[in-house]
Fold these 4 entries.
Entry 1:
Amino acid sequence: MKKSLAHAAFGILALALATTASAQVKPEDQIKYRKAGYSFMSWNMGKIKTNLDGSYNKDQVAAAANAIAGIANSGMGALYGPGTEKDVGAQKTRVKPEFFSDKEGVTKVAIDFNKAANNLAKVAADGDAAAVKVAFGDLGKTCKACHDQYRAE
Amino acid sequence: MKKSLAHAAFGILALALATTASAQVKPEDQIKYRKAGYSFMSWNMGKIKTNLDGSYNKDQVAAAANAIAGIANSGMGALYGPGTEKDVGAQKTRVKPEFFSDKEGVTKVAIDFNKAANNLAKVAADGDAAAVKVAFGDLGKTCKACHDQYRAE
């Protein structure tokens, strides 16, 4: 839990501050990279779901959960810099304007997401499918909460 | 080291076998997801490089290295299934035909990549910038080795 909170705190820090490192990434690439992160997490969520629905491979689930947590903890907030609130070049984005104004709400969904992702990785390492099912559902709810509030249809 | 090798072995297993989970992913989506994984790793490699070239933020580097390792260990080999050796729909791929025939060579670059990614994550957790520089260079070499052999210009 202490580690999860530390991770969440780091995610928020990265969300709040455009770091030197991220400032050098063009807005078009920021959109590309954040979409890549969500896309890759989506593949791994799908793998976990398939395992929960069918025959359960502990190693595959643990690896998928670690990939999701690694991405969740990587400070993706830095990929929402100025100029990324609308389509840029070839990169389309569905982010709503509210994402850039509702700091309190975004901080909450980001913390919830980080905590749930880290919890899933922890639970998946233990290999108990029933516990993974709960943690997976909890993580899915945090994805949906952000999509409902900040992603256009 | 034992953990790194276990991770590498899992990556290879995933590379060799199209699992039930991955078999349900359409070829077009397999290409989309593998490109997303490389793209997201690229962002994190860039962040580490920026830290090594400028002021060093241990937490940011460790998080980036964990994201890379999480993706590297996620069994991306399953995203090179039948039908993904050329462009599908909107998804373009630069993978060379040799990738699908040279099993021994691909296994080697995959193992080297997994080991280097796990080593970087381990070293980054310790926070020694000089050691991270070496591990980062080693990982970059494994990326380049695969690109040189199996990625078209």
Entry 2:
Amino acid sequence: MTASSSAQLRLATVSAHLASSSADPVSSALETSLPPVQINRDTLSVLLDGEDQTWRNWMFDQLKDPLFEYKNNITKEEAVRLNQQRTRHLARIGFRPKWDEPKFKNHKKFLAISDAMSYYDNSLSTMGGAHYGLYVGSIRELGSDELKAKWLPPADTFEIPGCFALTELGHGSNPRGIETEAHWDTKQGCYIINTPNITAQKYWIGAAAETAFMSVVWAQLYVPDPSNKDQWQHQGIHAFLVPIRDLKTREPCPGVTIRNCGAKSGLNGMDNGRLWFDHVKVPRNMCLDKYGGVNENGEYESMFQSKDQRFGGQLVNLSEGRVGLSISSANLAKTALTIAIRYGQTRRQFGARHPGEQETLIMDYNLHQRRLYPLLATTYAQHFAARAIMRMRDVEDKDLKQIKQFHVISSGLKSLHTWHLLDTLQATREACGGQGLKSSNRIGHMKADCDVMATYEGDNQVMLITVAKGSISDFTPKKIPALATFNKARFQNQTFSDATLLSSEFQLELFQHHAYAASQRLAAAVEITRSQQTDKKQSLDSILDQHSALSQEFARAVVEHFILQELVRIEKESLSSSSVSPLTLVRQLHGLWKLDMDPNMVRRRYIDESVQERIRDLVGAAIHRVHENVDALVSAFGVPDHLLGPIAGDWVQANVVEGNQDI
Amino acid sequence: MTASSSAQLRLATVSAHLASSSADPVSSALETSLPPVQINRDTLSVLLDGEDQTWRNWMFDQLKDPLFEYKNNITKEEAVRLNQQRTRHLARIGFRPKWDEPKFKNHKKFLAISDAMSYYDNSLSTMGGAHYGLYVGSIRELGSDELKAKWLPPADTFEIPGCFALTELGHGSNPRGIETEAHWDTKQGCYIINTPNITAQKYWIGAAAETAFMSVVWAQLYVPDPSNKDQWQHQGIHAFLVPIRDLKTREPCPGVTIRNCGAKSGLNGMDNGRLWFDHVKVPRNMCLDKYGGVNENGEYESMFQSKDQRFGGQLVNLSEGRVGLSISSANLAKTALTIAIRYGQTRRQFGARHPGEQETLIMDYNLHQRRLYPLLATTYAQHFAARAIMRMRDVEDKDLKQIKQFHVISSGLKSLHTWHLLDTLQATREACGGQGLKSSNRIGHMKADCDVMATYEGDNQVMLITVAKGSISDFTPKKIPALATFNKARFQNQTFSDATLLSSEFQLELFQHHAYAASQRLAAAVEITRSQQTDKKQSLDSILDQHSALSQEFARAVVEHFILQELVRIEKESLSSSSVSPLTLVRQLHGLWKLDMDPNMVRRRYIDESVQERIRDLVGAAIHRVHENVDALVSAFGVPDHLLGPIAGDWVQANVVEGNQDI
């Protein structure tokens, strides 16, 4: 398939379809009083990705190199070697800022490059994320100038790849509980790192099995008690830079044992490994001691009294990882939707509507539109939410309030975005039938590779507890003045015009109403439990778990409100240049769909039954209007043809006898 | 890991947990007025799988042969070879009835064997299903005695494997549209089978790429018009037995082209192939002509006038395939839940509830219970629904009403069961964290292999249209007398005791109420569309698509009602031997969960808001009671240890340095 033949096929089919669609019984029956809308692809593209897409296109072009052709049916060892080659190649062509480049120099360039990258392949993103984000990031944020100068130049070029060894067999989403130990040995003047038992082995360490020479190892630090040298003082979790493989022989270093985590159902381009340390000596200067460590005099020193604060400061890179997942999720959802919708626009089945016509395009079935368009609308919403959290990340010198807000929202978006991606991959896979499973068509492969997103960098449901915990005291009239006028019956015993139901004001107020009502229900439940409890020491975490349905409902409501708020903000901004925003339609469908299908919002009966029914009618109308604009909505994503599979193009020609599908 | 060390670990953890649970704040806070229940594992096991489990255990034992050890990280070619070896081995030990054995001789034995098989691996089930179910089944049902005698003995032993070539690139869920042609050549006295264009190539044909020698090929039959020999008469779709590979050389037969469908994101043990026929001659006696074909005089003959009837009669095997999927789905869901719940009973994280205690078992978190127990309850429900559809299948000489009912319910169960399996695999995968992705722990591998179930043997949403279409005239007071007393306000403006809300009568009546109300809404919408339409020829299919949300809602409601009805029936039957049924608890949770979480049921507001809220409380209470009985509920499934992964056993010991996970 060439790009042009694919475009021609689509164009031909779409034109033929438009020409006949006035007689289409399905569209005419869905017509409502809503005026037609015509969305401009280019305006939308600028809203999504900015006017200057030079660097984004540069990166997309790099991915045309034969090295980046998708390879399927290979063993995990082959997948890892390929992933290493690709990572090294990208390092060579300079797709990341150098370690000593100031953080916000060329910021837009590197954002655009890294954004474009994320469409391509999750194994490659993950190898880059583990090495540059976690390994390099930890040294840059926490290490001494001496360590940076020595280890970051060969890390930048991927000559000396590293890994980030935090997770253990026994502790994943709860890193505070890790069991690896580091003891300060006064006599030898070094740290001794040790794996005390089976569950303390480092596990799932990305790039550890085959790729990495170095590792940032996290351990519970014990130093001799100054007042009683025979006793150990626990100082909490610290990070150490530890060589794990000999730079020449590639053999594990003395005292280090390395094993592979074995085959996984996806992401096999990433070599996850297991590490054990048998009393490995680590020099004093190899501690990443920005927030705490043993000083030249052999005494422990930290800027924080609290171990929790030390740990929080050190783990700021993990929040950045979550931001990365929110972005990739939205981008990969765009890719999957582009593939499935294009296929639906060229694939015919189930007979003709009228005698003598061709069979109906599957994208013309209402059933098929309902599968895909609400997901398309939410993908738009999540795109802008991902941009918002990137901006929050990039605020220099955040104050404490900003740090907390960033932590809470990045955790929440990570959950809702990765789940949305998995839902989108499932729906698009099914929408493409068996073709959705064919590796060369990408969706099935993406499903396998992205599944891990729901639990790595923190389990999604656990992340939502973080959101509930962090928001329960914030979602109050004191902190959000609009809530002061909250009235439980605000929307009841009323009818609303279609214009109101479709308006951003109504939708946003109802989302906020839901979040606030959910916070009140949760707060009341917590209060009752506290008043009844005999066990006065029960933690808030434990109480929130006891009310897990309410906690999850509240957390989701907070994050959904944030997402809609951002979408509305951009919609309004775009109004300044034109009287109609191209985002209005997707915002309407996104909002209506949640009001129609979210069992929690529906259960709470904020609105009357007739309003609820009318919302369902409007969902139908919004889907119809999306259908009329779907070419613009999909092509504005700008996913290039070489990142899509044959079914997004001329899949008939791709299946001639001569074509080699046996890969 | 040995079975006994695994059992010991679980026992030790569970006993320790029971000893401390009276002081457990989470359980005590969830207590309601409901009396405690204690479920007996053995009683439950008999209800599920009957008293005599000899043949089931025989099959489980066969799967201990080293040939059946799970292999990961292999190419698709290796996976296919392994799958062929396993299929041949099973044929040798006699796991299927011989072709000439009367259908219901030894019925229980073969049901038990095939049931046990389905827990093991979807690639193996699919290879067996394609060969024995579709290929052998077609010859047995439609072929002449001569063909049976010649081709079925070597098919039984898998010496001459065959495939079933119906699906084409252009037509999958809509087989009526296939384009492959068979013309009767009067001069040569044979059929000529031809692939007229690219979309007519046979596609996804299981076992065609490497394994099969023979194929049952489906084609549109054209015979010369008796009144005008220059014109062709279309006789509809017929099946032909066609050799595709030379028995000695394995080379494609003359005129046959074979290609592989390429790597897939799962089910790679199954070699899906593509087939083209270039004017291939097929002798007259190779037509599977039970319902129609050319006779000795060269004239077309059929017992049916209607092409649709001919086609329907021939495709009865496809309904049987759907039954198989309903059963396997339930069994694989049992496997995944057994793995995840056992892991949750031994995995600790997120700190201790009280100082000095071990960290909390993740299965003791309310959040974790809510992830898994509603799925456990629904899996019980689906187990019995699958048994019911098997009984419907096995009725000899079904009348037309029974055939229709079987077609409708088998289509509906196929959809709801396979989706439930995919939901269960996703939830259990996430519940196991990264371990859920490790191939050796099976869940990730099952996810990849089972994804196809949602669209093969018919796309699930399309299947639900079949259900809506088939039920809209049946879900009436005339056919279901109970509906005559239907009253829209039946449940409104009333409160109900907990005992009522938990009762099977209330739940079943509400499910039926929902299905009937949905049928009325859909019927009204169809009526309105018909009265407004200008295009008088619009088909019911097209109108149902126009109201796809209502059609899908109705179809789901019909199937959910069937599932609950079956569960209640078995629950009541089991009451005859005891005053308490061990199924009551799962039936309660299954019913309550749908009432609480199904957005359609919630949206319709059949019950008052306070009742809706009370249902949510009772969900919490039911989850708590399931937690108290979860060992019995899981172990009654009887999934043997060798079909579970290391995390279902002593996963700590499975991760010692010496263990080789690098597979």
Entry 3:
Amino acid sequence: MQFSSALLENAVNEFSRLPGIGKKTALRLVLHLLKQDPKEVERFSEVIAKMRQEIKFCQRCHNVSDGDICSVCANSMRRQELICVVESIRDVIAIESTQQFSGTYHVLGGVISPLDGIGPDQLTIAALLQRIEKEKTEELIFALSPTIQGDTTIYYIQKKLTGKQVRITTIARGIAFGGELEYADELTLGRSLQNRMPVEKYMNH
Amino acid sequence: MQFSSALLENAVNEFSRLPGIGKKTALRLVLHLLKQDPKEVERFSEVIAKMRQEIKFCQRCHNVSDGDICSVCANSMRRQELICVVESIRDVIAIESTQQFSGTYHVLGGVISPLDGIGPDQLTIAALLQRIEKEKTEELIFALSPTIQGDTTIYYIQKKLTGKQVRITTIARGIAFGGELEYADELTLGRSLQNRMPVEKYMNH
């Protein structure tokens, strides 16, 4: 692309460095900003810069936070003895959006994946183990990807907790509500038959 | 979506105001920026703000410009007596990217569209007419959308130029190179038959 303005070109280049944003989309976004009030664009720019400069990670659960401790950990209404172990901040947002979980989180920062050079030391597993020890955690719920890497991570942490008084569970896998049986993959369908549940329990939800 | 950080939430909201960017995409972009070096994000933010604050519109052709006169108008190698009339800055970028045009531009800022409340006064038509008068323009090439609005705009400007010594043309319409005949719309195919060109002329390109 040939731009007649270096200012425009630089802005397009910056946007096109974002994931999933090509040159044409970047140009569309920049031309949109160009039509906005300069104050609106200044606010856009400031909010982004401020987010990156000031955002912190919760010292307890490694979730994003505006302070040293995140709003979930700081909330005394949440069941602090219940920890949901997730891979990323995105998973915390997904679970919080269900409004069905009253415990706390622990963000691992990924899953064990030797091929990608990610071992237990690259994740926040040591901090999780210390936390369980110190806080007398009652239950650990794993909400990780149903992949070999996710399963390896569960297995590794479970091994480390041998002999400890902590209940270890994972979220239910099965056919999604609204999911059509014929489109479900065989593994999910097979497992959902094995792990069938009493109708009374299903109806209570 | 439930965020545990107001900083994160504000950043996601700002991104999701951009056209074509929903909440989920906005979150993906913000989490990407969160992983980048703070200096990189600061540069992103600064380049966007600077673009909006400092960009100007060329006083002659209304294209975006870093100075009072854009780089196309300021280039003495370009044929200043040849003006390509376009709707938007995006069209200038598209034509410049072909590297086939050696004239200058005039950005109308849209086309006449009474239903959308856009009349000749909302566009830069008066400036174009003054410019043609003053600069003794030899040729005006219209590169507008092939719509009723585009055609109305051509008709309006052409009427205003009655009696003036200026050649008025429009870019060729026809089947795209690499376009399959069977997928072409009837109007384009019909017109491309009417406006057929000598093979010698075609082969010379």
Entry 4:
Amino acid sequence: MSGKNIIFLVLSLFIPVSLAAHYLEWGDLIVFGTACLAILPLAAWMGAATEEIAVVVGPTLGGLLNATFGNATELIIALVALKAGLVDVVKASITGSIIGNLLLVMGLAMFLGGLRHKEQKFQSVVARVNASSMNLAVIAILLPTAMRFGAQTVSQQTLQHLSLAVALVLIVVYALTLFFSMKTHAYLYEVGVAETVEEEHYSKPNIWLWAGVLLVCTILVALESEMLVASLEVATSQLGLTALFTGVILVPIVGNAAEHATAVTVAMKDKMDLSLSVAVGSSMQIALFVAPVLVLAGWVLGQPMDLNFNPFELVAVAVSVLIANSISSDGKSNWLEGVLLLAAYTVLGFAFYYLPVA
Amino acid sequence: MSGKNIIFLVLSLFIPVSLAAHYLEWGDLIVFGTACLAILPLAAWMGAATEEIAVVVGPTLGGLLNATFGNATELIIALVALKAGLVDVVKASITGSIIGNLLLVMGLAMFLGGLRHKEQKFQSVVARVNASSMNLAVIAILLPTAMRFGAQTVSQQTLQHLSLAVALVLIVVYALTLFFSMKTHAYLYEVGVAETVEEEHYSKPNIWLWAGVLLVCTILVALESEMLVASLEVATSQLGLTALFTGVILVPIVGNAAEHATAVTVAMKDKMDLSLSVAVGSSMQIALFVAPVLVLAGWVLGQPMDLNFNPFELVAVAVSVLIANSISSDGKSNWLEGVLLLAAYTVLGFAFYYLPVA
Amino acid sequence: MSGKNIIFLVLSLFIPVSLAAHYLEWGDLIVFGTACLAILPLAAWMGAATEEIAVVVGPTLGGLLNATFGNATELIIALVALKAGLVDVVKASITGSIIGNLLLVMGLAMFLGGLRHKEQKFQSVVARVNASSMNLAVIAILLPTAMRFGAQTVSQQTLQHLSLAVALVLIVVYALTLFFSMKTHAYLYEVGVAETVEEEHYSKPNIWLWAGVLLVCTILVALESEMLVASLEVATSQLGLTALFTGVILVPIVGNAAEHATAVTVAMKDKMDLSLSVAVGSSMQIALFVAPVLVLAGWVLGQPMDLNFNPFELVAVAVSVLIANSISSDGKSNWLEGVLLLAAYTVLGFAFYYLPVA
């Protein structure tokens, strides 16, 4: 049993602990902390189950499954928070996921990978296509915020209309991206997939077993998310944190922990192409799929969520995208580049920590 | 006769129709619409005539002609609008032309080219030189706008002085760019020119005939522009459009239609180098030549035009330049990249549509 | 004796002249001008002495010396100005040094180098690593300024805390960068060093002689800086210049003159790798070492200096970094690219000249 699996097993003990903390009323801070920890192994198992099922159902349907469930944890937490009316936390968690994937995950992968390997190379076409899609998606979701620069007063209704229009465009683009990667240009993606599969599978997995795991984990994630969201406001204010900091830094670390673990693990095995695909691909899914789904869901749930972010979030995301592009454009990485990304994340974290509530 | 020529012949029927609409007072909306359509074939014929004459007079003078008349339609419409005092529309049409060339034209070229050809390559040195010139030109024309970030109140006179100084620097840079491309580094540009020429010419064209065509078309474009500008305000307000949207989206589509057609046509013939040269080169000419000429003309005409744009235009142009660079840096394109550019243009279009009047 | 050395000898006459101007009270304008000119040869000799000593003490300690004394002139002027309470001038000189190195120095190097050599190539890995470090450092020092976009009111204390936190992160990153370049990845930097050394040295330099030169020059630079700073405010207001323009344009030209001369000289000898290393490396040192040291020094000296710049400085630096990246990414340069960089610097200079005092 690998070290990673032992950690996840230990963390899974927090599932009953968090339930106890909730029902025995041990206080919001403990509920929040244990729910955060309990979600980590569940997210990892959901990811594993999705990949196993994807292998059995074949590349097309499997790819669709991966694309839809890839950010399932993130999406479930966000939907629960949205239903509870924490619109600001949900919006912050979108930009936080993008920043976290590009700086924290990529940074840790390059740093820890670089400690073992003097220079790591990556050249995947997939990473490039993802990067272009991500740039455009990120720009699109930030446009309503940028409108502030153009007019002093933009009505709430205008922002809502524009956000819905942007969300629809993004979902169409996402569907076309899937069509591109599974049908017209599937050959570009074959190397990456083969690499993943080869390592993990020696016998055909039992689809019903894994479907059961996926179902149970999804239900448990939703349950833990409910407790996390219910205790979030009291717990974070006890810790002296703003809603913005919680949404941008804390929630995405919990929601994306599974991708973090994968990206770092494969980077240490010198598979940087796969590592960057996970980090960049996850950012892209957040911007092209999760964000627009949340806008539409907010509209349906009666919790209107526009894409009007705090302008500093716009700056932070723009900066992260520029760095990610600059690093990925030379096709090589070393530990220092990882340090630079982590330093950028640290500095952004300080800024979000100190940023006063508007 | 090619399909393109048939379309232009049909569109040329709108020349008499627009004149009739104007003199018989069929209403501003009809005058505006027919004048827009009438300009399209005239612009195409002006472009064709310029290229024919350029072949006869030799590379140096021909290059100069192409460089000066390449955006003649755009320039004529803008000068007429400037004389009529529509300074905001003129300014918006400058940024709109840059955005339109980089996102709409490049996007359509990559999308339609990519539907026919799985992957299209381009590597021209010319495209790179143009891109660098364009980046710097774009930055220069946006600086007066960016000054707003540095000081709450910048006097109109300061902006006017700065805009004139920037305009003079840009015209000097433009002259040096022509000197570079025709004298010191002409060899870099030979491939592209040869490619164009080879396809179009089998016999030496009659220079007097084409000079006549150029003259007649220029007069007609100016005439149609007068009608377009005179009817613009009433027509667009009847359509519920702001001056900003009209200037950024509508006017550039009419003014740049000829380049659009060329860039898309050659992309479908898998000549992506030429296609991108047209799109990027046109943006560069707008920023390095058309914009400064308009600033100087405004000063002469007593319609002082500074380079103080709506800040959202700055965001939109910055975004377009970043995307164009990101796409052109990998030297390859496919239909999805075209979709992404078109999606970005669509989303920007939505934003300009919803942007309230300041 | 080379032409460069003759110029420096002539300029060194301004050392006694500036002292005379100061003690005989010839007026602030003359003191300021002569002190500026007197600093130029002193900075050049400090640079030469540092390099000579570095050769003797070996690569590790020598590298550390070069890294620490590389921007010594800049740092001394800034510390003197900081002690005198000219915090705004010091802050402006930080961004001005970055802009000046990336646009003015790189531009002059490419322009003058390009006049002699049709096309110049550069491909150094070092330049790339430096560029990534610089991007991140620049982003980090600009973050406190960017916080303004996120909140209308940020308290002075918050900015001070954030600036100190950022300064500490940057100094750690700087130390790691040195560790990277001298220990773990020293082989990447060997080519560049060999190239410099080879040209300059045929016999082992006398370390005590050069240490004496370094000491004397440092003392004289500090003395001239005192006079320069004492006369700065009156002199520049007599010239009609704002503190911002003085800090962004004038001070960095004086402080970085030695690097300017080196970068241009080696570019004319077609050693573009070395030339760009100097320009980009100097920017990186300013952002990673000089700026954080000044923040900490300001805290110690009781002249609290935060990293809250004029927002237009943020725009100017962002623009300069984008251009430098865009130019350096294709690995080639010609005289036109130099012109474009110089044009960008000229236009930024106009903007800073016209920018009203906030």
